[in-house]
Amino acid sequence: MLILWIILGIVLLLAILYIAFFNGLVGGRNQVKNAYSQIDVQLRRRHDLIPNLVNTVKGYAAHEKETLANVTNARTKAISADNASAAERGQAENVLTEALGKLFAVAEQYPDLKANTNFLALQEELSSTENKISFARQFYNDSVLRYNNRIEMFPTNIVASRGNFKKEQFFEVDNQTERAVPQVSF
Fold first, then answer.
1. 36 Cβ partners below 8 Å, 6+ apart?
2. What percent of the chain has pLDDT over 70?
3. pTM of the predicted protein model
4. How far apart are CA 114 and CA 107, in angstroms?
């Protein structure tokens, strides 16, 4: 009778551990989804600001049509990548970041534009949004790291394989110019 109670206790302990590991993995997966949605919120904000920025620049730099068209096209591609994987979406956003950098470089050539309050306000909003995107990406990648570690580490890897939990992709910067250290010279 004592052996039966011991076996029943071990089975009950294993069931409790399985449930705890499974729930931890579900919580981790949900945190990754939440973190990705935070990136999505900031990217949508960024996409909404860009048409206003482009229209403001158009008034001052009408002959910079190629730069403005590149920003608009990059924005369209970034918006259409909404349902893509994190890697594909990151690549589309990197192209948009590069196009925005060129737009701001064009804006530097126009003193009246640089002094325009609408442009300055939009530039500040976009800069703030870029910072929020960076923080959201960092939080997402941290969440993916914790989740992927749980999937690969013993003993939760057993539960993960049985529960069909899959590794998530990091939101990475593929653009080498963004990785490069800026050169400051006087």
1. 86, 140, 171
2. 89
3. 0.73
4. 7
Query: Could you tell me which residues come within 8 angstroms of residue 102 by beta carbon, excluding any fewer than 6 positions away?
Result: 67, 70, 71
Omega of the bond leading into 155 within 30 degrees of 0 (cis) = yes
Q: What is the pLDDT of residues 135-167, one digit of tens each?
A: 999 999 999 999 999 999 999 999 999 999 999
Q: Which residues contact 46 (CB under 8 A, 6 or more apart)?
A: 96, 126, 129, 130, 133
The set of residues, in sequence order, having a beta carbon less than 8 Å from that of 142 and lying 6+ positions away, is 35
C-alpha distances in Å from residue 22, one per residue of 15, 18, 86, 108, 183: 10, 6, 24, 54, 48
Q: Which residues contact 138 (CB under 8 A, 6 or more apart)?
A: none
Q: With CA atoms as reference, report the closest residue to 27 among 143, 157, 122.
A: 143
- Amino acid 67 reads T
